[in-house]
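Lab channel / #folding
Pinned by the channel admin:
"Please post every new chain as: sequence first, then the structure tokens as a reply. Keep commentary short and put observations after the output so the thread stays searchable."

First post following the new format, from NK:
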Amino acid sequence: MANSNHACVNTKLLAMKSKMLGTQDYEALIKAPSLDDLFYYLKDNTYYGPFLEEVHTDHLHRLELEVPLTRMKIYEIEKLMHYLQGEEKTFVKTLLIRSDIESLRVLIRGIARGDNLEELAGFLVYSEKYTNIPFDKLVKTKDWDSFKKALVGTDYYRLLEIYKQVTVEDDLFPIEKGLERYYYDKLKNNLNKLDQKKNKDLIKTTREGIDLLNLVWFYRGKKFYHLSREELLAYALRGGLKIKEKDIQHMSEIKNMDALHEVMKSYSEYAFLFNHSKTLDLYMERRRERFMYYAYLKLFNGTEAGLGKVVAFIRLIEYEIEDITSIIESKRYRMSVEETEKFLIRSFE
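Reply from TO:
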């Protein structure tokens, strides 16, 4: 990206960032008496408003709000792509793959349940401009074989063609983890193609995120799912900052949870994940995401000359949408303000 475009996109980003939710907005959403009140606050008082115009409040539920919020994120990313070129544009396009994969998961689960996929089209959120997945063809397929055939010519056909069928009785876990691994492999490969000097902080932050995902994967995989060494290795992510291949191999071979716990705590930068014995399992994911939220906030406010501010902004939007989704869920379970705040990524302490 040329220097003139750096200056232009950074100015644009500061304006876009100023529209994100502030503390008062969070407080208003958390204290909203009902889901309808939350919806009208978002619609009338925030930059999500234009994307909520067609949402009807009859039988309002989480997905009806989450879908347009995610569409807003895609819209913002596509605007930023206008200023990017070369490897930097390729890297940001990689971030859009997450939405592609989430939409694929919606359809794969639909096939497993025997749903009419055309009825799920409204729940698919992806970049029509940059996706290479023929979603228009996929929603018209009637079975797993025709679904896979519609993906011929994409990487996803290679990933999915080994699975002979998908039903509610089948375990969709390997398919979904395989898609996740594909995304992170692409992310790692395209991260390595960026200018390493100009993007030093971005690279460090991204690789820390991979480390944290691996720690959560091994902890949960062993404690709750009792996965085999082979399963743990197959879906562990590569490209982390501190956790290398030998560390992944070692953690996969540990049998005892206490021993695994000690090994994980030895990574001092990430010990915060494991220093809360009473709430370790309950808040582990939130602690991981909160760490990354503040890492990306620091990256956004930094002075690095590369792509860091762009990627940080995208991540901050994602975390904001996750928090809104958590607040929506809090209305469903009638949680108090204090209980709701405990599950948010952004801290109010």
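NK: Residues 121 and 136 are 9 Å apart (CA to CA).
TO: also worth noting, The chain is about 65% helix and 0% strand.
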